[in-house]
Amino acid sequence: MPWTRRHLLTLEELTLAEINQIHATTDAFKRTLTRSVKKVPVLRGKTIVNLFLEPSTRTRMAFDMAAKRLSADVISLDAATSSTTKGETLRDTAENIQALQADMLVIRHAAAGSPLYLSRILRIPVINAGDGAHEHPTQGLLDTFTMKEHLGDLRGRKIVILGDILFSRVARSNIHALTKMGAAVTLVGPSTLVPHWFTALGVSVSHDLKSALADAEVVMLLRIQHERQASGHFPSLGEYTSMFGLNKTRASWLNPKAIIMHPGPINRGVEIDSELADGDRSVILEQVTNGIAVRMAALYLCAGGQPENVMPTE
Amino acid sequence: MPTLWIKNARVIDPAIKRDGPGDLFISDGKLVTSLSAAAKKRAKKIDAAGLVACPGLVDIHVHFREPGQTHKETIATGSRAAAAGGFTTVVSMPNTSPPADNVGTIQFIHDAVRRDAVVKVLPTGCITVGLKGLALAPIGSLKRAGVVAITDDGECVQSNELMRRACEYAKMFGLPLMDHCQDASMTQGSVMNEGVTSTRLGLRGWPHAAEDVIVARNTILAELTGAHIHLQHISSRHSVDIIRRAKARGVPITAEATPHHLALTDNLLAGYDTNFKMNPPLRTEADRRALLAGLRDGTLDCISTDHAPHTDYEKDKEFDYAPNGILGLETALAVVLETLVRRSRFKLARVIDLMTRQPARVLGLPAGTLAPGAPADLCLFDSAETWTYDAKAGFSKSSNSPWHGRTLTGRVKTTIVDGRVVFANSHIAER
């Protein structure tokens, strides 16, 4: 089955087959990353613009790195250097980027739905690098890719996502990917940050850490932002840590082979004990490395490449 | 002023319990029971065969943006949109720039209406200075300047104490208060109904409870003070329930629903189309059905559009950043006929009642009837004509409508204000 999408906007709209195609392509690109010459020539002559209107280090660097590994030219803009600070609309900024002959646009934006909005305006492919609390599809893809590397088939596997789910695009993208892949997903956290509405997405919601973690094979932690304290979503970071922080005792409730994941940036000592973040069950840095290969796959496929044609040359 | 003879219409006027075939006669801008033979001879005849003739529609909730936001709408364009939609009397909201919290601005609006309007435009004044919710506007002076109600629409008076005093004070002048019911502390940053769809879309939710608590507050204050509070654009099923119970106790409250809250639900936001973004937001099917039930049993008194124009470039934005509001005047009748009559089996006369006599009654306006002696404000419409709505070709200055490009059934053919044809054959008859 050929890859037909030009945009990567959400994981909600992808089929399981498409997710598997991206994962297979990721796998092929990942093998090129350990070579002495890491570049593949598949996007030579193409220009990719990374428009990051919200702060990001990991995702932006991974997209930069991925574009360069594919031999594309890459230009990165952030809110400070784009004309949005002068009041230019997103439409105008994006149409200007297209008029400058960019071949592809990677967008990070604080407003949910912005990548979809741009995909309707532009002729060039649009890749969502995170839109508000909506989706972060390449993060969901790299997370599920990492899980598959450790667990194999995810069908029936017990996976816990723990933390601020309400405001998390990472959680939403993972929920859509994992439910399509047949995993048993439980969302855990304070009731203010894990509203019952999420059950409509095919996952369980729990506020009891012990029963949720029992025998789970993956626990994915999400960053807790102290701003949520001011908005009344929980009393204090200290209370959050005492109720929901992952520590050694709580980690012992997990399946003995369980992996610990986090999309970063980590608040050490808040959602996770520092020791666990660095421990041998943590795959946090593997996620980062896989982030390059996943973005290579996403850029390559949306630029018109086909999974079976990944023929990396030294 | 021409003498008019409207022939062969199906005349529906719930105010005088008339529903049947017949003619209407208009002389000197008023409805009359008959014309002399000579007058009949020289009268302008309008053949209304196949059409319904009803009182001109009344909308007690529109935004005409003048003064200050005339890039969106003006009294000239807004009143033409009203005429095209069959409305002959509209009540304009005071959240202009500057807000209508002073006699000078009301006078400015009166002047613009006299100069530019093709239908009757009645202004409201603010409850509080600058819509800020901190100090009472000069309500007595506003009344003297001719406002028909006071409201901070778009904002909601958050202080219960100030709202209580506003009620007591306005009651002295017999002036109704209209309230946009929204607890601001519960809706920070919100852009759509809180629920499954907002969860999926990652958009900040506006819980129905934020409306319900203010609706409850207002029923309590209306009961305490005896002031009449009109609850604007009710969207929540729980609010309908609160209003029903309060009315059963005889509390002096009234309430309205909009065509969009009656016809549409929040799952339509899946494509982040900003033409489905308004405040209060579209809610669920259960809420929509409760609004229909509320209109059916009289819990909700009338239908109002909340006609809220914004330019293309203001609406063409990231969903979070686009302003709230949609057009309503030119589509209201067709949408209501579809939603209430064809889909929910309301009687046609009942729907006309909800758009004529009832809104007029809410604010005590001299409108909404074809009784002899009444101002000859009429709407003639074809309830079966199918047409495609092109918002860009409409009479409003803006085109922000969720019904743009949609095929609608039910079309206004002629609108008459004080015996003068202001809209006919898809054209405004210029003054």
Strand content of chain B: 15-25%
Terminal CA distance of chain B reads: 12 Å
Low-confidence stretches of chain A: none
Number of domains of chain A: 2
Order of helices and strands of chain A: HEHEHEHEHEHEEHEHHHEHH
CATH architecture of the largest domain in chain A: 3-Layer(aba) Sandwich
State the total count of DSSP E strands of chain A.
Answer: 9
* Largest interface: pair, residues per side: A-B, 25 and 20 residues
**Fraction of residues of chain B in helices?**
25-40%
CATH class of the largest domain in chain B: Alpha Beta
Give the oligomer, counting copies of the same chain as homo and different chains as hetero: heterodimer
Residues in β-strands, percent of chain A? 5-15%
CATH superfamily of the largest domain in chain A: Aspartate/ornithine carbamoyltransferase
Estimated structural class of chain A:
alpha/beta
- Low-confidence parts of chain B lasting 5 or more residues at pLDDT below 50? none
Strand order of the largest sheet of chain A: 7-6-5-8-9
SSE class of chain B: alpha/beta
CATH topology of the largest domain in chain A: Rossmann fold
Description:
- The complex is a heterodimer of chains A (314) and B (431).
- Helices cover 38% and strands 14% of the residues of chain A.
- Chain A is α/β, with parallel strands linked by helices and 314 residues long.
- Chain A is globular and about 55 Å long.
- In chain B, the strands form four sheets. In chain B, strands 1, 2, 3, 4, 5, 16, 17, 18 and 19 form a nine-stranded mixed β-sheet that branches. In chain B, strands 9-10-13-14-15 form a five-stranded parallel β-sheet.
- Chain B has 14 helices and 19 strands.
- Chain B is globular, with a radius of gyration of 21 Å.
- In chain B, helix 5 crosses helix 7 (208-225), helix 7 (208-225) runs parallel beside helix 8 (237-248) and helix 8 packs parallel to helix 10.
- Classes of the chains: A alpha/beta (314), B alpha/beta (431).
- The A-B interface holds A 12, 89-91, 109-114, 116-117, 131-135, 169, 172, 195, 197-198, 200-201, 231 and B 188, 194-196, 198-204, 271-272, 313, 316-321.
